[in-house]
Design a protein that fits this description.
By secondary structure, the protein is of the alpha/beta class. The protein has eleven helices and eleven strands. Helix 2 packs across helix 9 and helix 4 crosses helix 11. It starts with a helix and ends in a 6-residue tail after the last helix.
């Protein structure tokens, strides 16, 4: 009996030590990171999310003296990559480049295996990417009023791309088309880059994209910017009006913004969350980081994890209301 109790006590003590060791190891960020860190981008290379991740990866790698690797895992409107991070070990070595596309997925696809508002640890907002509508040279339109008249006169004739399904680009186009009672065909893509490539090639004539994906083609004259979808003007394209400034009364309150930040899986320790958030803030406020992002058409800004979650919860309500009002559904 005494021997049995000793064995039981030994096993219990061993399990307790393993648990305590794990907890303290997780709450000790001083040696983090001691191996490569991965940032998962849930879209194809070349878009605003990818640019944001790569600029931050370069700077974090220098700061941490460890490799920071960007991995693109596109598909299902960003849900495949997000689920991958959700299922990863909460040790800080697998991070998500989060966007409001993930909030839209949460709103439109209730049967996802994770809850974006609850199953991730926020680590700070990093950038915003102004969005716009642009057309190729086959469309004879210089502004939103021209495009609206064309689509109204030729219902169902023109196809458009909106980076990927359930993205803020798609949401913005759907609201615009529904508000103005226009009929255009959506062609789904897995990211802004392939959508822009097909617009240049004439497979589609209209694209809603983030500025980093189109700015070089606008400067070359192969794409014509029509209007900004975001709530304020962009320094990257001075003089281009927002949709609310387009002179169309029905769109005077139009505003959809697009932003990027970092998240980890749920279960990340508070101390490690603080460590990563502080380092993301350092990088975000670095003048060279800001310069690289601005050249790409991105607008750098930092919000801490608390304020980041406030925006996410606010947008969850905004997108839910907009989806009902404009009858937007996952396709």
């Amino acid at each position: 009996m005494y021997r049995i109790l000793n064995v039981k006590n030994f096993i219990l003590l061993l399990m307790f030590n393993i648990l305590i060791t794990g907890v303290f190891a997780q709450e000790k960020p001083s040696d983090y990171p001691n191996r490569p860190v991965r940032i998962i981008v849930t879209f194809t290379p070349g878009g605003a999310a990818d640019v944001t991740a790569r600029v931050f990866a370069e700077k974090l790698s220098l700061l941490w003296k460890q490799s920071v690797i960007v991995e693109n895992k596109p598909g299902a409107g960003g849900s495949i990559g997000a689920e991958y991070v959700h299922r990863s070990v909460p040790d800080g070595y697998t991070l998500l480049l989060a966007t409001n596309t993930h909030i839209i997925n949460h709103v439109l696809i209730p049967k996802l295996s994770f809850d974006f508002t609850k199953d991730f640890t926020p680590l700070g907002m990093a950038t915003s990417a102004p969005m716009l509508i642009a057309v190729n040279n086959q469309i004879k339109a210089k502004n939103l009023q021209d495009l609206t008249k064309l689509l109204k006169s030729e219902p169902g004739k023109h196809a458009y791309a909106a980076c990927n399904m359930a993205s803020p680009h798609y949401f913005a186009m759907a609201i615009y088309l529904n508000t103005m009672k226009l009929n255009a065909v959506n062609i789904p893509y897995k990211g802004c880059t392939p959508a822009v490539v097909d617009t240049l090639g004439g497979q589609v004539n209209i694209v809603a994209a983030s500025i980093p994906a189109v700015i070089s083609f606008i400067k070359q004259g192969t794409l014509q910017p029509i209007a900004l979808l975001s709530s304020k003007p962009s320094a990257a394209l001075p003089g281009l009006p927002t949709i609310s400034e387009s002179g169309i009364p029905e769109l005077k309150n139009f505003s959809i913004d697009n932003y990027y930040g970092f998240m980890g899986p749920t279960g990340l320790s508070a101390s490690l969350q603080k460590k990563i958030e502080e380092d993301v803030k350092l990088v975000a406020n670095d003048p060279d980081t800001r310069s690289k992002l601005e050249i790409a058409g991105l607008e750098p800004f930092f919000l801490n994890s608390f304020d980041m979650m406030k925006i996410i919860r606010s947008d969850e309500q905004k997108y839910s209301q907009a989806a009902k009002q404009s009858n937007i559904k996952a396709e």
